[in-house]
Design goal:
The chain is α/β, with parallel strands linked by helices and 293 residues long. 41% of the residues lie in helices and 22% in strands. The strands form 2 sheets. A 6-stranded mixed beta sheet has the order 6-7-8-3-9-10, with helices on both faces. A 4-stranded antiparallel beta sheet has the order 2-1-4-5. It binds adenosine-5'-triphosphate (ATP).
Length: 293
């Protein structure tokens, strides 16, 4: 894999019983890019995200995440099945067993990948700032004993977490809403809060599942600006699933198009706009004017 790629997906397969949701998906995502995964309903986009983030254990294939500090096989950290070699090498057996027992999506997040969901999944009964503090529990330097004794290190960790929460609230323009319940925010604000919450886990790659769904045009414009800020000022690579073609074409450096669980096209927006396979298969229309490309 090229050093420039933060993510390499190779021959990814996901079956649900007889349904072949993903059939041999291969694509790479370059570090520092904004890339989009598009395709018609049911093409397999969310299933790809679910395999990347550990919500599903892929049926086959490889997913390699290369961040500044780690080179991670996502499928391995999720606990892939025992392989013949494991029964020959005790070390390989122990390693596999460790991942099977303690692996999971938390390890994918620790490796530098975070996501948001198609349906907003905030803690709606908690305040805005509490949502961001919860997101930091894996990284914050805290222990039960330190909490009971209220040690200096504990207080410093609390202060740091609060500072980070307010930093990201500033980026997504929600500082003045910090103490409101998350469930009381407008839809657009909740979407921004979800992004801030993901950013509190220090990802190098963030996967956004339909971030513009339900937003009005001015909110979509704000979101587009924010995604650019993430890429340009925070060195974050962004991979998004989106049906708003205007936004996708405007913001993406690279686009992967899926249809019926297969990649039918990859390339820059100009390339994708003019690809007859995409126009016909993805949007089911011959005329690109009809489909907004
Ligand atoms: N947990 C599951 N069990 C069974 N089938 C599933 C499951 N998750 C997804 N599928 C199937 O996999 C296929 C791809 O679904 P997926 O949600 O990934 O599509 P999508 O491209 O994200 O669609 P949309 O744009 O509507 O969100 C569909 O046929 C879907 O019914």
């Amino acid at each position: 894999m090229s050093k420039e790629n933060i993510l390499a997906v190779e021959n990814l397969v996901m079956h649900f019983g007889g349904i072949k949701a993903l059939n041999d998906i291969t694509f790479n995502i370059k570090k520092g890019s904004v890339s989009a995964l598009i395709g018609p309903n049911g093409a397999g986009k969310t299933t790809v995200f679910n395999c990347l983030t550990g919500f599903y254990k892929a049926t086959g294939g490889h997913i390699r995440l290369t961040t500044d500090h780690k080179d991670t096989s996502v499928i391995q950290v999720l606990g892939e099945p025992f392989q013949p070699l494991d029964f020959v090498s005790p070390m390989a057996f122990i390693k596999r067993l460790k991942y099977k027992m303690f692996g999971g999506s938390h390890l994918v997040n620790r490796s530098g990948l975070a996501r948001t969901f198609q349906n907003i999944r905030l803690f709606k009964e908690m305040s805005v700032v509490e949502n961001l503090l919860v997101a930091q529990h894996m990284t914050a330097n805290r222990s039960l004993i330190a909490g009971i004794l209220n040690t200096k290190a504990f207080r410093e960790a609390e202060e740091e977490a609060l500072q980070k929460a307010f930093y990201w609230l500033g980026v997504v323009d929600l500082v003045s809403h910090a103490n409101r319940l998350a469930g009381e925010l407008s839809y657009g604000q909740q979407r921004r809060l979800e992004i801030a919450r993901s950013m509190c886990t220090n990802p190098e790659l963030i996967c956004l599942d339909e971030p513009a769904a339900g937003l009005n045009p001015s909110e979509t414009e704000e979101l587009t600006k924010m995604i650019r800020i993430l890429r340009d000022q925070h060195n974050v690579t962004v991979l998004l699933i989106e049906h708003d073609m205007g936004m996708v074409m405007d913001i993406s450096d690279y686009i992967v198009v899926l249809d019926h669980g297969q990649v039918i096209a990859k390339g820059d927006p100009e390339n994708i706009k003019n690809n007859p396979k995409v126009i016909a298969a993805y949007l089911g229309a011959e005329d690109e004017d009809e489909v907004g490309l």
